[in-house]
From TrEMBL:
Keyword Oxidoreductase: yes
Name listed for the protein in its UniProt record: Glucose 1-dehydrogenase
Biological process (GO), any one: bile acid metabolic process
Species this protein is from: Metabacillus arenae
Matches recorded under PANTHER family: DEHYDROGENASES, SHORT CHAIN (PTHR24321), ESTRADIOL 17-BETA-DEHYDROGENASE 8-RELATED (PTHR24321:SF8)
Lineage of the organism: Bacteria, Bacillati, Bacillota, Bacilli, Bacillales
Length: 247
């Protein structure tokens, strides 16, 4: 029996990259999964591949009405939600002087406002389930700053804060809330020429001397989603090959 047998999970940004890895491994561990994304073709293909314990829902994570729809679809298909993975996110590499207000707001909306909406909307369902686990995906950029990354860094630092507040507020319902802070992970987000060069330079100097793989993040997320982490809440879990160890 898998670590997540009998549990119902919602995973945002699940069509590719880290999100798709989470979806696959959650199913392998026995969960029933509703995953969401704006990437419809990739999402539908993944759902078809994984079978009856998975459902894909097109979803703009910045839209409150669409969050309500996701929860309704999940409960009607699989039942009350035990696990929420706020994984959806975007990156924009620009210096502050070149960053427009619209660009800044877009990154904050997708990366941070969506986390607020997800936690707020899932809460009634998790109360019905009797307990739950929420994992908010931040970044090592939520622990330290990086040049040309103001909007992204602001959103990822804020995820740390809202995670701790939610952990305090939701504890009485048996709901745990933690944040995950990956470094460079081999996903489409870092596969531009500049990002690969920067990641290779940084992570070649890291103690483990490599970028991470999506499956390595998924294994940590499964731990936090499962009862194995029953005494962990309001905490930050870092996967960065040792990059921040000397900071």
């Amino acid at each position: 029996m898998g670590k997540l047998a009998g549990k119902v999970a919602v995973i945002t940004g699940g069509s590719r990259g880290q999100g798709a890895s989470h979806v696959r491994m959650f199913v392998e561990e026995g969960a029933k999964v509703v995953f969401t994304d704006i990437l419809v073709d990739e999402g539908e293909a993944l759902a078809k591949e994984l079978g009856e314990n998975v459902k894909f829902v097109k979803h703009d994570v910045t839209n409150p009405k669409e969050w309500k729809h996701v929860m309704d679809e999940t409960e009607s298909t699989f039942g009350a939600v035990n696990i929420l993975i706020n994984n959806a996110g975007i990156y924009l590499g620009k210096y502050i002087e070149d960053l427009s207000e619209e660009e800044f707001r877009k990154v904050i909306n997708v990366n941070l406002f969506s986390v607020f909406l997800g936690m707020k909307t899932v809460l009634p369902s998790m109360k019905k389930a009797g307990k739950g686990s929420i994992i908010n995906v931040s970044s090592i950029n939520g622990l330290r700053g990086m040049v040309a990354s103001a909007a992204y860094d602001a959103s990822k630092f804020a995820i740390r804060g809202i995670t701790k507040t939610a952990a305090l507020e939701f504890a009485e319902y048996g709901i745990r809330v933690n944040s995950v802070h990956p470094g460079a992970i081999q996903t489409p987000m870092i596969e531009t020429e500049d990002a690969i060069e920067n990641a290779g330079e940084t992570y070649g100097k890291a103690p483990l001397k490599r970028v991470g793989q999506p499956e390595e993040v998924s294994k940590l997320v499964i731990f936090l989603a499962s009862d194995d982490s029953s005494y962990s809440t309001g905490s930050e879990f870092v996967l960065d090959g040792g990059v921040t160890a000397s900071n």
